[in-house]
Fold this protein.
Amino acid sequence: MQRVQRQAGHIQPWRRVVIDIPGPEFEPAPPRLVGGTCPDSECDGWSTPELTLRSASVRGERHRYYRQPRQDATCAVLHEGTGTVVFAVADGLSSATAATVGAAESCRSAVWAIHAQLDEGGPGHDFPAVVSYVVETLRRQAAALLQREDPDLAQVEELVATTLVAGTARSGPDGVELALFRVGDSGAWVLDLTRPWFHPLFAPKTEGDVVASAVFALPRVPRKLEQWFGKLVPGQALLVGTDGFGDPLGDGGGQVGALFAEHLAVPPSPMWLAHLLDFSRETFDDDRTLLALWPRSEGR
């Protein structure tokens, strides 16, 4: 016992990752119980015979300072019958008074709806039906919060507006078959680990040097739903993240891209992913959420 204690004494605590100029240093304040709450940070990680998953979500510095809860959420489950990984990532809009609830409920209901399609024998790709189910779930949640039977669209939006990226990953004969959709400005990328290179699966927020400020979000439904279908092969990883990750990442060619390309070359521990995601960099103070998937190879 004494020997173990002496060895433990040499363990150094993790220092926060700093990129370029750090943000302000302070002890986070507890979030107020307004519009829902959740832990400051959370992480998850597991593997199937074909896929390895890691995810993490951390509260941003702005919310830590102003005692606001984290407004990002993520959820992932395995559909046992098909070996399909079903996942979702959401970013509640800061303008929504119960954004935390909106993000969490949209992830939960999207994963549930896709899982139900797989139970029925389908591929789980009827994404318009998934979006309709999520919108109805948000409406019911808003009705409960308002204690009103039938809130209108504007009232639901004011309470629980959120972005959403969700989809499936399933091993196939030529690689992992991916299917995703999104509403809003959260993103998804295929990280080519051999270059490394971040390939965005949806249109980026920026046009030249201009960043789009308006966000289209649930419960509003776009006329044409953004969808992406493709494959993931060994040497690649799928990343799905909120703009708290996507904005500092940019095109992936800077310091943030280099950091994550290095540490995602193989699946890290879930807690290490959360630690990386909580990096300090001046002006980037939003909540950050990242979900990653790797095809499994022998010995990994």
